[in-house]
UniProtKB/TrEMBL annotation, chains A, B:
The keyword DNA-binding applies. Residues 37-56 bind DNA. It comes from the Bacteria. The lineage of its organism: Bacteria, Bacillati, Actinomycetota, Actinomycetes, Pseudonocardiales. InterPro entries: Homeodomain-like_sf (IPR009057), HTH-type_TetR-like_transc_reg (IPR050109), HTH_TetR (IPR001647), Tet_transcr_reg_TetR-rel_C_sf (IPR036271), TetR_C (IPR011075). It comes from Amycolatopsis magusensis. Keywords: DNA-binding, Transcription, Transcription regulation. Gene3D superfamilies: Homeodomain-like (1.10.10.60), Tetracycline Repressor, domain 2 (1.10.357.10). This is AcrR family transcriptional regulator.
Amino acid sequence: MSEARGPDPTRRSERSRTAILSAAIELVTESGYAKTSIEAIAARAGVGKQTIYRWWPSKAAVVFDAVLDLTKGQQGFSVLETGDLKEDLKQVLRATAEELTNPRMDVSFRALALEIQYDANLASHWREKMLGPALDATKDRLRSAQHSGEIDADLDLDVAVELLYGPLYHRWLLQTAPVSVEHADAVVDLAMRAMSR
Amino acid sequence: MSEARGPDPTRRSERSRTAILSAAIELVTESGYAKTSIEAIAARAGVGKQTIYRWWPSKAAVVFDAVLDLTKGQQGFSVLETGDLKEDLKQVLRATAEELTNPRMDVSFRALALEIQYDANLASHWREKMLGPALDATKDRLRSAQHSGEIDADLDLDVAVELLYGPLYHRWLLQTAPVSVEHADAVVDLAMRAMSR
């Protein structure tokens, strides 16, 4: 009986989804965002164009989900809480620096950072799913450090998290200097002086 | 005799240059960067297309100079040295926030921030002429505060300036929250705590 059954449709969907997202990242990395088409992604993934359009409204949306998948795998948007705030922040900022310099991420992530300038809908997705969770998790970690008395209770956490992430994205987007884990550490060391009581 | 003389060619060049740069900013602001052409800039400025090509190699180069002109007028890339470091930094960071939120600047400046991702030559011009002078002037001001003992002499100034500018550009480019002079002040207040001895 079991041999007569067709493949599990949920499994097949998941396989197609993974193939599409991998193809999107590969093509953007190889040829750039502008030259990557939905047709090419479909061909590389071995699915029909309509399969992509059934799940995603645009090329930007496919690349967005592809990057989101890569990001989640690496970081999971949670910040460790070992009791040593400085080390916990270094861990998360180093992971960000590694993401930004990962060749598999760089071109696609950068392309999206540009697309949001012209696409308000994508910009709000970006805030909600891409940057928001990382900023929120970091604020949660800082809030807990406020409760334990490790950092100043009056600190404006919205400004404090930008002191951590701002310098990394500044380098990366404006290409003023290379992003590195050493730089991430230096930023945390300095920002900790601002936050400490 | 003087009535028989033609117009001063240097003056005429300067008038054309100003007209071209104004037309470039106006068109990019009205229609977006992608839809602005050299032809349209020439027509709006009342010059021939060849006049533009004689002075600039590309649309990006024209818009770059147009933005540079606007930036210089507002800020001049110098940081006040009144003896009160915190106020001097607030003054320069507020000016940056005002530039980034100036509707006449926003679209063109943002378009260039995107173009540099794909154009290594423009990226190096950007570093050298647009961001570099502001970062360097700010570092000079911090160096002088190190000498006067106002801030820590061991501070890595490359990291310190990013603690100031990074949060503003992070908000502006990644659209996580509005840029404002109040935000600029909050960033300086917090960064000063990191830098002070």
